Amino acid sequence: MWQPLPRHPAARRFAFGLLFPLFPLLVAGCSSQSAPGGAAPVTPVTPITPISGALCKPADPVASPLRRLTRVEYNNTVRDLLGVDLSPADRFPADEVAGGFANNAAVLTVSPLLAERYMEAAELLSAEAVKTLPVLLPCQPGSTAASEEACARQFAQRFGRRAFRRPVAEPEVERLMRAYTAGRADAPFAGGIELMIRTALQSPSFLYRFEFGGAARPGEKLVPLSQHELAARLSYFLWGSMPDDRLAAAADGGQLATTEQLAAQARLMLADRRARPAVAEFYRQWLGLGALDGVVKDAAAYPAFTEELRAAMRAETPAFVEHLLWTGDRRLATLFTAPFGFGSAPLAGLYGVTAPGGAATAMLPLPAAQRSGVLTQAGVLTVHALPDQSSPVARGKFVRERMLCQEPPPPPPDLNVTPPEVDPTKPTRERFAAHTASAACSVCHQLMDPIGFGFEGYDGIGRFRTSDGGKPVDDSGWVAQSRDIDGNFRGARELGDKLAASAEVRDCVATQWFRYAFGRFDGAGDDCSLAPLREAFAASGGDLQELLVSLTQTQSFLYRPALAPGEVAP
Amino acid sequence: MSGLSSVFNRRRFLRGGLAATAVIPLLDAERAFAQAAAPRRLVIFYTPNGTIGSEWRPRGTETAFTLGRILKPLEPFRAKLLPLGGVNMALADAGFGSHHTRGVGGLLTGRPILSGTFQSAGPPTAGWAAGISIDQHIARTLNPPTAFKTLELGVQVIDAEVRGRLSYLGASQPLPPLESPYDAFDRVFAGVSPAGPAPAPAGPMDRLRAQRRTVLELVREDLAAVRARVGASDRLKLDAHLTSVQDIERRLVPPTPSGGTMGGAACALPAAGARMDVRAPANMPAIGKLQMDIAATALACDLSRVVTLQWTHAESNQSFPHLGITGAHHTMSHAGDTDAAAQENLTKINVWYAEQLAYLLGKLDAVREGDRTLLDNTVVLWCNEVGKGNNHAHRDLPFLLAGSCGGHFRTGRFVDYQAGGGAGHPHNNLLVSLAQAMGTRDTTFGDPAHCTGPLPGLT
């Protein structure tokens, strides 16, 4: 059962467990395939530190860089703010990516090009918004200059409050009123409002999520966030958008003051439809599905890979996530093992089942021996493959990086890493065998290929197969250098069972959500948040919704680091 | 006009890109520069993943050389070329991230990259580049009176981290290239009509321009207010934002009485066919051509004097279906020297890039400026973040200059700093040479430990 954490998690003390011992480089499972006496020992991967025991050691808090709205967040926010559905951020330059996520604050800046796009988007949106002016206005402008100005001032306060996600200060109202005056000078009242909206949409207080927090007590390293900052954290975390009126009112009323209140809010928000696409966006990025839009397949090798099929693959994962988290059992284990998918005829055909017809994302019961949750979804298998064949390397690396949070090093110089040419008389596995047969290659490839071999039952677009290169598929694989799932397995189905049972994978999923939620990498100073988060996730039996509630209970959610003395400009 | 121009319809003139209210005196360079000294221009032409040295490197002596397979498409411009041998980038040999991230981050900045959190390129993991890039430095120093101090154009760059960025305003301030030629056209040529003055009535344009100035002034005040309350690293971010806003403001000037006209054919707006998917690999040749057309026109019309054209990104796994190459470029570039099939494909890719460069050079050389051509008044640098894909060497990088930059460089020569056993020169020196060619007084650039002055023997 998930348990609420104490009000002040910082007060809890945790200690690190012993550092995870480095595993022997070559494990029994593959040593027979590795050339003897080869490469010098290296540390290929750094597993995430398991934090055992109930104590963590407080370290200096990790910096929490200023977060700029992502393209997804911008589109959602202007939709909720103005009631117009124009998605202008689709024309913004791509958000920079770090660690697999396109929301890492450290790398999101405002280039001249983006500033220009902000200006154009603000002009487009404000013009669209004032077409339904009465809906926006909290008052009747009347017919005199004075009554108009009074109404404009009310609007500045109300709209500024929503656009900046906090009450506006008097100088901010004055600046918005200067925009009104400029716009009203040579146009009707709506022209003044339009310019005010334009200004607000280009203000840093709209484009970034400032977290000033309360006053830091001398000597304290952490500053509690304000009520409105917590509301914005909740809404961007769970909805990918601004707080709605109810949440904003809760912040106004100081109703986000305890971890219990935050948990209750989080549960309410997760029950709202807006949570579904926002949560699915994490899974899309985590599973590497951003690459699906641009993935290229060799038409001769995969004539079935049509635009229709690509669209069906794109739609499946969000539908699956939505089902699992809101209709299904919400378990992490099910994420890796569920024998069902979602799609219409083209995807059903790929899975070898009959589409029930109707919705484009109808539930598809799949052959249980062949399919295992997200691991075997066609989109996931398609992006982790080569244009004309599968890729044990890419698929093994995917599991190693995204599910185990381990980073295999890049290939060393002067190696032939050209994927072997497709040979109709040789199975993929045989053609990739050089990686594990050469000592220089196997040092790293034993981390990836043996896991990837377990996916050999699926071709480059995720279709199940029993023969490859004229021979029966050998989908036996093994896992090495893991905390708790080392050993042999056969096929993605058994790999799914391993991942579902692994504490290391469970901790990694919590870590990935942590990075996504906070838009930054975790550091030592986060241990007093990560430890209880992982413990709560474990205690809940891997409940994927409760994991999100638990995230709102962490020290990292409630506080930001205090600025160093003298760091703030005078 | 059809194609690209038709995308840019009248409605967008009235609610247009920045250029719609930033109408600047457009020059018909062909006519204007016949009388006055033409400005000098810089074009950076970047392609990734190294080359095949044996096919790239000219054979022979400084003045009597033959071009290998890769440079062969540039043969028509031979007298205007200056291929270089023995220019090294030792600053990228060690440090954060991969050889590719260090190479691309150091290429135009002349500094080792910062540490950071790009885990895809480690360990130890890479951050952004550590300083201003040479293109931005030149533009900032010379402050040319053009609508765009610099233009960054990309072709299927896609990657949005350190591997995909060439130009920097400063440390950790990368400039994303415009990857859509349709957006680029809109941004660069809005407000420009081939038929004469800006087509939108002056009144609405003046009004929009005034509104933009008002709004941006308020935005600057907002930025200053929040800046005072944040820590040092966030302040850097807001400063970069402020610079971006000021860049827009600077362009919001009313048209001068003599401005807003385009006359000569050289300054004619480019055209293209129907809008296509800018990210589909099969469209790469067409998208690249459009971006080169826009770059050439922007230079010919003196809309900008510093242009970067970036093809894909460092470590790019681009496929080249138009060359019959479905394999992934970076993966292929790791192939050993004995992998003949891979070497042949890599050569083909680089030959194709040389053909693209030849197309661009041809466009520039077709524009007359007095007794010279636009190409003569330009220096184009073809560069790559590594020398050789399979060992990631940062030695003897495939740098090639084209165009003399107004007579500054003595072209038609193969200058090999390794000839006769020479040790070669750091590539920072090449960056200094580019800055001097453009007219700055720089004697050093980037990390001083990697710079000893301009490259010798080029002028």
Q: Could you estimate the helical fraction of the residues of chain A in percent?
A: 40-55%
Structural class by secondary-structure content of chain A = mainly alpha
How far the N terminus sits from the C terminus of chain A, by CA atoms, comes to: 49 Å
Compute the number of strand runs of chain A.
10
Shape of chain A: globular
Biggest protein-protein contact in the assembly: A-B, 78 and 80 residues
Main sheet strand line-up of chain A? 1-2
Could you describe the 3D structure shown?
Chain A has 570 residues and is mainly α. Chain A has 25 helices and ten strands. In chain A, the strands form five sheets. In chain A, strands 1-2 form a two-stranded antiparallel sheet. A two-stranded antiparallel ribbon of chain A has the order 3-10. By secondary structure, chain B is an alpha/beta fold. Chain B has helices at 4-7, 10-14, 29-35, 53-56, 99-107, 134-142, 181-189, 202-227, 232-251, 284-300, 329-333, 340-365, 427-438, and strands spanning 41-46, 59-60, 65-66, 81-85, 87-88, 115-118, 151-155, 306-311, 368-369, 372-373, 378-383, 400-402, 415-416, 425-426. In chain B, the strands form four sheets. Chain B has a seven-stranded mixed sheet with strand order 7-8-1-11-12-4-13, sandwiched between helices. In chain B, strands 2-3 form a two-stranded antiparallel ribbon. Chain B has a two-stranded parallel ribbon with strand order 5-14. At the A-B interface, helix 3, helix 6 and helix 7 of A face strand 6, helix 8 and helix 9 of B.
Task: Briefly characterize the structure.
The complex is a heterodimer of chains A (570) and B (459). Chain A is mainly α. Chain A has helices at 28-31, 71-82, 112-129, 133-136, 145-163, 170-184, 189-202, 204-207, 227-238, 245-252, 259-271, 275-286, 307-326, 332-337, 345-351, 378-383, 392-403, 428-431, 433-437, 439-453, 491-501, 503-518, 527-539, 544-551, 555-558, and strands at residues 67-68, 208-209, 222-224, 340-342, 363-365, 467-468, 471-472, 476-479, 487-490, 559-561.
